[in-house]
């Protein structure tokens, strides 16, 4: 009996300390719950209220803090985010809106899944709304976080996410430059769009060309699919030029979206320009302001004179197949499959190139015998580096300017190749 009684007493004594330990452990947990209730003022909601889904827009959950007497204080600010949480195929422009009632927005952050910078936007002066500064990107998931404060300083917060549309019809600007390349001082940045552009204002805001050192660069539209950029005067040697494309999400025409968002930078090389004189039968090269070399040349004959005006070297091709039919002449006038050292100057077939087939009489420097090109002496196969055509090919860059003077033909059209230098600055900027 004494043993049993002692055991009972011992058991009762052991239970009381355990009970006190439970109370002591419960107190910190209660404190955490109270703290979390107050922290709700800075956190986001789950989009539900009273266990039910909210309506399509997103409404901020009630945020509470504790007064000294323990009574809850509820923020009166209500944050709303459109489109609804989880929405898909959202328009890139005009759909994203964040607003606050019974309070003012204090911070809005929108980030895309592409990992770029947060979307730029502005809170209205009255704190009632926020909108993005530009269209969003297509096919991108965005996360939105917003906070608002009521008159008492209590904070309400909300998070949401949505995904923008993937367009069925897209438009690309195919450009003529490569990143990190070196081009001549006359390089014109040209974009040819894959579809017609009916909203040029949108493209003008979304495509820019800048330079270091900075100069004014203007774009000029040729029709509704081509946009070229150039400064008033040739670029200075060493200039860094950057094409900025921010077309993704922008409608270039109804239902047709741009898809490009990138920068492309190139460097301007030494200053070289050349003048082909139709009367003197020469090609005179100037580099960095000083005469470099004068070469005997053959330009277009009386029936096929060369274009007058400034043209830009568009490509360098070691061998070119030249067929008279491709430039509107009759079949068989010429068909030379291995023209050496070709440098294209126009879309209509004008080249500076080597000529090995006219040796008797020697035309270079004496007469014009070509069909509109500027030809220099060369050998078949172009393998002799001492030939004038080989030398000029080696010393030239894409973007160098070749100007034809004293030809009886009219000045080349500014959209024939990259011949925008044939247009004066006033006319160029009038259609910018």
TrEMBL record:
Pathway: Glycan biosynthesis; Cell wall biogenesis; peptidoglycan biosynthesis. CDD domains: LDT_IgD_like_2, YkuD_like. Residues 1-21 are annotated as: Disordered. Residues 1-16 have a biased composition (Low complexity). One of its GO terms (biological process) is peptidoglycan-protein cross-linking. InterPro entries: Big_10 (IPR041280), LD-transpeptidase (IPR050979), LD_TPept_cat_dom (IPR005490), Transpep_catalytic_dom (IPR038063). GO terms for cellular component: extracellular region. Residues 272-405 form the L,D-TPase catalytic domain. The active site is at 353 (proton donor/acceptor), 373 (nucleophile). Gene3D superfamilies: 2.60.40.3710, 2.60.40.3780, L,D-transpeptidase catalytic domain-like. Keywords: Acyltransferase, Cell membrane, Cell shape, Cell wall biogenesis/degradation, Lipoprotein, Membrane, Palmitate, Peptidoglycan synthesis, Signal, Transferase. The keyword 4Fe-4S does not apply. GO terms for molecular function: acyltransferase activity; peptidoglycan L,D-transpeptidase activity. This is L,D-TPase catalytic domain-containing protein.
